[in-house]
UniProtKB/TrEMBL annotation, chain A:
One of its GO terms (biological process) is thiamine biosynthetic process. The keyword Repressor does not apply. Signal peptide: none annotated. This is Glycine oxidase ThiO. Pathway: Cofactor biosynthesis; thiamine diphosphate biosynthesis. Pfam families: DAO. It comes from Phyllobacterium salinisoli. Residues 2-314 form the FAD dependent oxidoreductase domain. The lineage of its organism: Bacteria, Pseudomonadati, Pseudomonadota, Alphaproteobacteria, Hyphomicrobiales. It comes from the Bacteria. NCBIfam families: thiamin_ThiO (TIGR02352). Its EC number is 1.4.3.19. The keyword Zinc does not apply. GO terms for molecular function: flavin adenine dinucleotide binding; glycine oxidase activity.
Automatic annotation (TrEMBL), chain B:
The active site is at 96 (schiff-base intermediate with dxp). It comes from Phyllobacterium salinisoli. Catalyzes the rearrangement of 1-deoxy-D-xylulose 5-phosphate (DXP) to produce the thiazole phosphate moiety of thiamine. Sulfur is provided by the thiocarboxylate moiety of the carrier protein ThiS. In vitro, sulfur can be provided by H(2)S. 1-deoxy-D-xylulose 5-phosphate binds at residues 157, 184-185, 206-207. This is Thiazole synthase. Its EC number is 2.8.1.10. It is found in: Cytoplasm. Belongs to the ThiG family. It catalyses: [ThiS sulfur-carrier protein]-C-terminal-Gly-aminoethanethioate + 2-iminoacetate + 1-deoxy-D-xylulose 5-phosphate = [ThiS sulfur-carrier protein]-C-terminal Gly-Gly + 2-[(2R,5Z)-2-carboxy-4-methylthiazol-5(2H)-ylidene]ethyl phosphate + 2 H2O + H(+).
Length: 336, 256
C-alpha cells in the first residue's frame, strides 16, 4: 500500500517511521526545504516527561507519553535517561506541594539529594521532586536522524514541495501538516511558545530542571556542550514571529533565579512558534475519505508522536478499528 | 435583579478565562458555574498583531456576555489602547480596567486607574475598575463615571480571601446603590460566600477554579457558595454576640 505523508515535523517523521517499519511504501512531501524549517518541532524542548506533564495535562498524556522514551531510544541516539528535577524556591513551596499532589512517579528530593543530582544547584534549593523515569532528547538531532534513517530505508523525502504540485500516486494520505492543516481542521488553533537557547561555560546541569513559580514557570533542558534550552511560554495566539521583551525578561529572569551563573551565559538563539492544538489540548486522528489527519500534538509533540503514530498505523491496517485518539472516541473519553 | 450599566445579570459569579488546562475544560467549567459573564485578557493571552483570534472566537463561542480586561497594563496609555482594541474585537463598551502599580503584589495604581477611568468613561466606555478597597479612590472612580466598582479581596491569584473585611464592609456601606464586585484574591468557595454575606453583588474569580485539580467540580462548588452567600445576605443574618443564648429554653429542665 502506497502512503503519502504530508509534513516533516515530528508527527510526519514519526508516522513515516512507523508506516515504513510496517512495510508500507511511504513518500513524505513537505513544504519546507530542510528538515525543521517551518516546523514547530524545531523549537521543542524535547522533554520526555509524561509524569511531570500530568500536573496540567489530561490522563491520556501521562499514559501514552510513557511510550515515548523507549520509542525514541530505539530510533535515535540522542536520548538521555536522567530523569527530571522539579524545584521551587522556599517562598513558593506551595507550588511544589501542588505539583507533587497532581503528579505521580516522583521521589522527594531534599537538599542533599538535589546536591547529588545537580551539584551546581547545591545549597540553593532545599525542596524538590525527582522523576527518575523521565528523560529528554535533542529534538533537532532526533528529527534529522529519523529523516536520515528513513532515506536509507528507501523512503522518498520530497522536501520543498507543495502537495498539489507533488503529483504522487498513493492509496492513502496521512496529513501531518500541523497548524497548516487549519484549512481542513477548523477546530485547530495555535498556541504560541517562545524559547531561548543559551550557552554557559559555568553551569553544568545533567537533566531537565523545572523551576516552579506562581507566575513564571520555567524549564531548562541541557542540549550538550554547555547549551541550554530555556522555555517556555504559553500564549493563546498564533501570530507572533519574534519573541517579546516581556517573555525574554521572564525566561531569562527565571534562569537567573535558578542559577545566577546563567547571567554570564551567551544567548545563542531565540525562537517562537505556534503549536497546533484542539480544544481539549489532546491529539487527534481524523479520517476523511482517503486522508487521515494526525494533528493537535500541542506542547507534547515528542512525547505523544510515537503513540499517535502507532494508532495511525492501527487505523490504516484495520480500517474497522477506532484507536483511542480517533475522533470517534472523543465524546466517550470526554464523559468518562 | 442585579444590573451592570443597565444590563441584567443572571449570575452573581463572574469568571476569568486564563490558565485553564484546555479550552475544553474552560468551556465545561463555565457551563458548570452557571456564569453569565466571562472576562478575557487581550494583552497577555493574545500577543501582538491580533494573534489571539482563535482563542477569542472560542470565548465568543461560549455564548456569554464578554467583559474584556486590560490585565497586564502598567500605564494609563497601555490600558486605554487595550480598551480600544477590546471594544473593536468584542463589540462591547464594557471594559474591566486594570492598571497595575506594583509588580510583586500586582496591586492597582490608584492614580493611573482614576485617570484611565476618566478618559474611558468620557469616550463612552462602561468601566469596571479593578481597585483596592480604598474609599477615596472609590469616590473618585464614581465621580469619573464608573457605575460598577471592583475592589480586590486580596492580590490577584493569591487565594487569600478577603484580607480586609472591615474595609470592604465600609465600602459597601458607603455605596449602597453601586454594584460592587469582589475581583481577585478569592481562593475558596467560603471566601466567595463571605463576600456575598457582606452584601457584595457578585464575585469575579479565575485562578481558584482554573488551577484546581478538577476545575469543573470547583466551578460547581463556587456556584453553590455564591448562591448560599447571597441567600444568607438577603435572609438578614443574626449579629454575633458575646453572651451565649441557648436555642432551647432552659425552663422546665432540672437544675442541678
Amino acid at each position: 500500500m502506497r502512503i503519502t505523508i504530508i509534513g516533516a515535523g515530528v508527527a510526519g517523521l514519526t508516522c513515516a517511521t512507523e508506516f515504513s517499519e510496517q512495510g508500507f511504501d511511504v513518500t513524505i512531501v513537505a513544504r519546507s526545504e530542510h528538515i525543521g524549517d517551518d516546523s514547530c518541532s524545531w523549537y521543542a524542548g524535547g522533554m520526555l516527561a509524561p509524569w511531570c506533564e500530568g500536573e496540567s495535562a489530561e490522563e491520556p498524556v501521562v499514559r501514552l507519553g510513557q511510550e515515548a522514551i523507549g520509542w525514541w531510544d530505539r530510533h535515535v541516539d540522542c536520548v538521555e535517561r536522567q530523569g527530571t528535577l522539579v524545584l521551587s524556591h522556599t517562598r513558593d513551596a506551595a507550588e511544589l506541594r501542588r505539583f507533587s499532589r497532581r503528579t505521580s512517579a516522583h521521589e522527594a528530593a531534599d537538599a542533599e539529594r538535589i546536591a547529588a543530582l545537580e551539584p551546581d544547584l547545591a545549597g540553593r534549593f532545599r525542596h524538590g521532586l525527582f522523576f527518575p523515569g523521565e528523560g529528554h532528547l535533542d529534538p533537532r538531532k532526533a528529527l534529522e536522524q529519523l529523516a536520515e534513517t528513513l532515506r536509507r530505508r528507501g523512503v522518498r523525502l520530497q522536501l520543498g514541495t507543495e502537495m498539489d504540485k507533488a503529483a504522487i500516486q498513493s492509496d492513502l494520505t496521512i496529513d501531518c501538516r500541523g497548524l497548516a492543516a487549519k484549512d481542513a481542521l477548523p477546530d485547530l488553533r495555535g498556541v504560541t511558545g517562545e524559547m531561548i537557547v543559551i550557552r554557559s561555560s559555568e553551569v553544568n546541569l545533567h537533566r531537565p530542571v523545572r523551576l516552579l513559580h506562581p507566575r513564571i514557570p520555567l524549564y531548562i533542558v541541557p542540549r550538550g556542550n554547555g547549551a541550554y534550552m530555556v522555555g517556555a511560554t504559553m500564549i493563546e495566539s498564533d501570530a507572533s514571529r519574534r519573541i517579546s521583551v516581556r517573555s525574554t525578561l521572564e525566561l531569562l529572569g527565571s534562569a537567573f533565579a535558578l542559577d545566577p551563573a546563567f547571567a554570564e551565559a551567551e544567548i545563542l538563539e531565540t525562537g517562537v512558534d505556534a503549536r497546533p492544538a484542539f480544544p481539549d489540548n489532546l491529539p487527534r486522528i481524523r479520517r476523511r475519505g482517503q486522508t487521515l489527519y494526525v494533528n493537535g500534538l500541542y506542547r507534547h509533540g515528542f512525547l505523544l508522536a510515537p503513540a499517535i503514530a502507532r494508532m495511525a498505523v492501527e487505523a490504516v491496517t484495520d480500517p474497522t478499528s477506532t484507536p483511542e485518539m480517533m475522533d470517534e472516541n472523543y465524546p466517550e473519553r470526554q464523559s468518562a | 435583579m442585579l444590573e451592570f450599566y443597565g444590563t441584567s445579570v443572571s449570575s452573581r459569579l463572574l469568571l476569568g478565562t486564563a490558565q485553564y488546562p484546555s479550552p475544553a475544560t474552560l468551556s465545561e467549567a463555565v457551563r458548570a458555574s452557571g456564569t453569565a459573564i466571562v472576562t478575557v485578557s487581550l494583552r497577555r493571552e493574545s500577543g501582538r498583531e491580533r494573534g489571539g483570534q482563535d482563542f477569542w472566537a472560542l470565548i465568543k463561542g461560549l455564548g456569554l456576555r464578554v467583559l474584556p480586561n486590560t490585565a497586564g497594563c502598567h500605564s494609563v496609555r497601555e490600558a486605554v489602547t487595550t480598551a480600544h482594541m477590546a471594544r473593536e474585537v468584542f463589540g462591547t463598551p464594557w471594559i474591566k480596567l486594570e492598571v497595575i502599580g506594583e509588580q510583586d503584589t500586582l496591586q492597582p495604581d490608584p492614580f493611573g486607574l482614576v485617570e484611565a477611568a476618566r478618559i474611558l468613561c468620557d469616550e463612552g466606555f462602561e468601566v469596571f475598575p479593578y481597585m483596592t478597597e480604598d474609599l477615596v479612590v472609590a469616590e473618585r472612580l464614581v465621580e469619573a463615571g464608573c457605575k460598577v466598582l471592583m475592589p480586590w479581596g486580596a492580590p490577584i491569584g493569591s487565594g487569600r480571601g478577603l484580607n480586609n473585611a472591615y474595609g470592604l464592609r465600609t465600602l459597601r456601606a458607603h455605596f449602597p446603590d453601586i454594584p460592587l464586585v469582589i475581583d481577585a484574591g478569592i481562593g475558596l468557595p467560603s471566601h466567595a460566600a463571605e463576600a456575598m454575606e457582606l452584601g457584595y453583588d457578585a464575585v469575579l474569580l479565575n485562578t481558584a477554579i482554573a488551577k484546581a485539580g478538577d476545575p469543573v467540580m470547583m466551578a460547581q462548588a463556587f456556584a453553590k457558595a455564591v448562591e448560599a452567600g447571597r441567600l444568607a445576605y438577603e435572609a438578614d443574618p443574626i449579629e454575633a454576640r458575646d453572651m451565649a443564648a441557648p436555642s432551647t429554653p432552659l425552663m422546665g429542665k432540672a437544675f442541678l
